[in-house]
Design brief:
The protein is mainly α. The chain has a domain of 99 residues. Helices cover 74% and strands 6% of the residues. The chain has a two-stranded antiparallel sheet. Strand 1 and strand 2 form a beta hairpin.
Length: 145
């Protein structure tokens, strides 16, 4: 959330400091949910990649030898998968997701890459609606926004 706050502050400073609190919170919520969705989808893709690779490359007997116990199978309908393979793929996908989130927090270029398009769109909409309300009745002082 700190990453999103830092990135969104630039948009809020460009537009106007008199935005209502609910609008400021909504902007932060939007950027945070996009960042969370990106990290989750990336983690899921890494999970699927390692899972498919593990199915293709590591036989059940090798998994049993490595773990030192009989292979525990996880059922998904008519399919059976190794429980250890599911756990390892899940952990690697989770770490990949965390890595993506932390690199965005620590690196300005990554943050701009992940959150830039979202904040540019929000900033453009806010500039059009909030500062140029004019004849539409929406914007400054209006409760329609």
């Amino acid at each position: 959330m700190v990453t999103v706050n830092r990135h969104v502050e630039t948009v809020l400073q460009e537009v106007e400091s008199t935005l209502p609190l609910r609008v400021k919170l909504n902007i932060r919520w939007n950027a945070a949910s996009v960042h969370l969705a990106q990290a989750s989808i990336f983690g899921l893709l890494v999970f699927v990649g390692f899972f498919v690779f593990g199915l293709a490359a590591v036989p059940q007997a090798t998994i049993a030898t490595w773990t030192g116990t009989p292979t525990v199978l996880v059922t998904l309908g008519p399919l059976y998968f190794s429980g250890a393979l599911v756990k390892v793929s899940w952990v690697l996908g989770g770490f990949a997701s965390l890595y993506m989130a932390t690199t965005a927090a620590g690196d300005r270029e990554r943050r701009e890459e992940h959150l830039g398009p979202v904040t540019e769109q929000m900033g453009g909409v806010l500039r059009r609606v909030w500062s140029g309300a004019g004849s539409t009745g929406v914007g400054r002082g209006s409760t329609d926004v």
